[in-house]
Amino acid sequence: MTNLQSDPNRVLDATPVQGVASVERRAFGLPGIPALLILLVLVVATVTLLVAELYIWGVLLGIAAFLMLSGFFIVQPNQASVITLFGRYVGTERRNGFFWTNPFTSRRRLSLRIRNFNSERLKVNDAGGNPIEIAAVIVWRVVDTARATFDVEEYEQFVHIQAETALRHLASQYSYDDHEATGFSLRGNPDEVAGALVTELGLRLQHAGVEVLEARLSHLAYAPEIAGAMLQRQQAGAILAARQIIVQGAVGMVEMALRQLSEQHIVELDEERKAQMVSNLLVVLTSERGTQPVLNAGSLY
């Protein structure tokens, strides 16, 4: 089993996307209020020319005002507007407010807000071949609008599919539980597992202009068909660990009792009596139920 501590940021089998990646750049945009005042001037001039029966000039100014009107757009907080002109990317407007740009351009709104989703519960095999159920919460946001718009078909669907792929790959690399206490596991090292998942997702999603802020397992359990057997195994391990502690404590108490009896000269015990006393004390100290004392009214022999 691979050690997470030795290389918690390793990512396997994340093939880069071929081709030239898009690069976000700032779009041309004028403040909307001055452009709106110019539009009002054009409208007034159009009406004046039509009243003066200068129809040709009035129609031309009216067409210009109509075209100018389609160039206004608004950018809300934590949103961006991706602008294209006849199929060519011309830039992205991230500033919040009211703007005007080339009226022949097309504009697509894109959210820059932080998003999260809880993946579906996946049934996969861990490194030991045991079927397990696993799910994760992914927190992400768009950081490059050009890549998110042009380099992938649907960036939200791309995030969901890549998150599922990375989660399946991660689950297959480590065991559900480290029964031998020799390394790392999905259940025993949640922080290391989360770090490895964030790193792998970050590499997979960078081609879509997406940044992964956090990724943590939200569900981890054995599959129903082996859950009972694994629960018995865990219970047996817990019982053995508890028994080991009880026996160690009982041996220490017996040793202390024999030493104090000898040092304080309360009673002199030969080896046979010491063995009998040790046996009785261990039974009393390690028994799960209360012991019933037996009083000897006669000789010790």
UniProtKB/TrEMBL annotation:
Residues 70-234 form the Band domain. InterPro entries: Band_7, Band_7/SPFH_dom_sf. This is SPFH domain-containing protein. SUPFAM superfamilies: Band 7/SPFH domain. It comes from the Bacteria. Keywords: Membrane, Transmembrane, Transmembrane helix. The lineage of its organism: Bacteria, Thermotogati, Deinococcota, Deinococci, Deinococcales. The chain crosses the membrane at residues 28-49, 55-75. The keyword Chaperone does not apply. PANTHER family: BAND 7 DOMAIN-CONTAINING PROTEIN, MEMBRANE PROTEIN-RELATED.
